[in-house]
Amino acid sequence: MTLQGRELILGVGGGISAYKSADLLRRLQDVGFGVTVIPTRSSLNFVGTSTWEALSGRPVNPSLWSSVHEVPHIKAARGTNLIVVAPATADLLAKIANGICDDLLTNTISASKSPIVLVPAMHPEMWLNQATVANVTTLRARGILVIEPDEGRMTGEDFGVGRYPEVSRIVSEISKFVDLNSDLLGKRILVTAGGTREAIDPVRYIGNNSSGKQGLAIAKAARNRGAEVVLVSANIAHENLDGIKTISVESTAQMQEALSQEFPLCDAIFMAAAVADAKPTRINSEKIKKGALNSIDLEANPDLIAALAKTAKPSQVLIAFAAETGAKDIKAAQDKLARKGVHLLFLNDVSDGAIFGSDMTSGFILNVDGSKIACPQQSKDTLADLLLDQALIKLG
Ligand code: CTP
After folding, report:
1. Going by C-beta distance under 8 Å and a sequence separation of 6 or more, which residues neighbour residue 247?
2. Residue 183 placed within a domain
3. Do 155 and 19 reside in the same domain of the chain?
4. Are residues 234 and 381 in the same domain?
5. Which residue, among 277, 270, 231, has the nearest Cα to 365 in the 3D structure?
6. CA distance 163 to 37
7. Could you write out the DSSP letters of every residue in 123-161?
8. Shared-domain flag, residues 203 and 173
């Protein structure tokens, strides 16, 4: 099965090897997962919530009985794409096999429709105990991946099968179990979204209609494909952007500043934001009375993407967008692509407000090599993946 998103719950059971899950958490983040940790109460004897909060960058709540109004087990179960329990103790294996729900983790597992991976770790006697063997058989028969433990030294003097497996093997078995589609792993993608605003006075601004949906779709798709994503967001409301570094800006000058910091570090930039072409020559410090609002003197803003193209390394890929009304003139768009010095340009027709705010889009992807791809009516999510595919070809 292919995972569409990369939200993962890491359940931590009460075994001494719980500390090894700190490394597992990091490696799962490396392959693009946003990780939420749900420890069992007994595991907190080995590793505390602060460790999980610091490593995951998210709050950790092991209890079913806090934030009850949010129905935490259902919220957790619906918000995840994969559940990994490591270490999975004999007790947890027994509970999950028998549908016992007595804490947040086991309730979440019971309520979830996501794939489940269990990483048992326990003393050999417990792993080979007939009850555990029967539980593992039951769990595997239900399509749950139960990873074989390693053989080796246990806590104390013991030796045998039951060790927490090497983290690299766990990640590799998870990758085989679910198709992670991580073709952008190791790439750093910079995305701008929304529209910049230029203040006229403390209450008015020059702005535009960009909803930011296309940029957000690209940022999320890139994250889901394993990229490290930086989003420069201008004046748009966000939903869940876990795993995406977000820099909020208002004006073109602020966006330029953010890009000057982030662009040198990225492999590709998707300049989906609508940048205000001009700004008032001066911002009035007080609200202008309407009688005095006859005209506003403007000065041009710099062309941000064209300026970045001039400083870009040969390996960096630049993608621009052109929103045109009645965009039938592909030649004009090809000239724009050349003028801005970008590799790809998505040309869409926004006549009649057809695209702004919509979840759907249509247009052409123009390539610096002169080729073009027609993109008939499709979702912005679909176009996001198509644009990433094209950028990936250029990234090599
Ligand atoms: N862009 C930019 N800086 C600007 C204006 C636009 O980086 N000051 C970027 C946009 O983010 C977009 C692309 O350039 O990716 C095309 O924007 P568009 O407004 O179509 O281009 P303009 O250069 O403003 O051309 P036009 O004269 O057609 O308005």
Report:
1. 230, 231, 232, 233, 258, 262
2. no
3. yes
4. yes
5. 270
6. 21
7. -HHHHHSHHHHHHHHHHHHTT-EEPPPEEEE-STT-EEE
8. no
Q: Does residue 79 share a domain with residue 194?
A: no
**How distant is the alpha carbon of residue 89 from its chain centre?**
31
CB-facing half-sphere around the CA of 11: CA atoms within 13 A: 29
Going by alpha carbons, the residue nearest to atom 20 of ligand 1 is 322
Q: What is the pTM assigned to this prediction?
A: 0.69
Dmax over CA atoms of the chain, in Å, equals 88
Structural domain contains residue 182 = no
User: Structural domain tally of the chain?
Assistant: 2
Residues with CB under 6 A from ligand 1: 271, 273, 275, 277, 301, 303-305, 320-323, 340
10-39 pLDDT per residue, tens: 999 999 999 999 999 999 988 878 899 999
The reply to whether 137 and 244 lie within a common domain is no
Tell whether 2 is covered by a domain. Answer: no
Q: How far is the CA of 334 from the centre of ligand 1 (A)?
A: 13
- 147 and 235 part of one domain: no
Q: What ligand 1 atom has the least distance to the C-alpha of 339?
A: 23
Q: Are residues 141 and 252 in the same domain?
A: no
Instruction: Dump pLDDT digits (tens) for 49-89.
Output: 999 999 999 999 888 888 888 888 988 998 898 999 999 99
101: three-class secondary structure by DSSP: coil
Question: Which of 192, 197, 271 most suits a substitution to test ligand 1, by most atoms within 8 Å of the C-beta?
Answer: 271
Return the CA Rg of the chain: 26
CATH number at residue 114: 3.40.50.1950
CA of 339 to the centre of ligand 1 (A): 11
Ligand 1 pocket test: which of 233, 277, 331, 343 has the largest number of ligand atoms within 8 Å of its C-beta?
277
Handedness of CA 208, 247, 337, 357 (dihedral sign): negative
Alpha carbon dihedral 153, 155, 161, 167, in 10-degree steps, equals: -80
Domain that holds residue 46: 7-177
Report the C-alpha gap between 298 and 275 in whole angstroms.
15
Catalytic positions: 208
Distance 192 CA to ligand 1 centre (A): 12
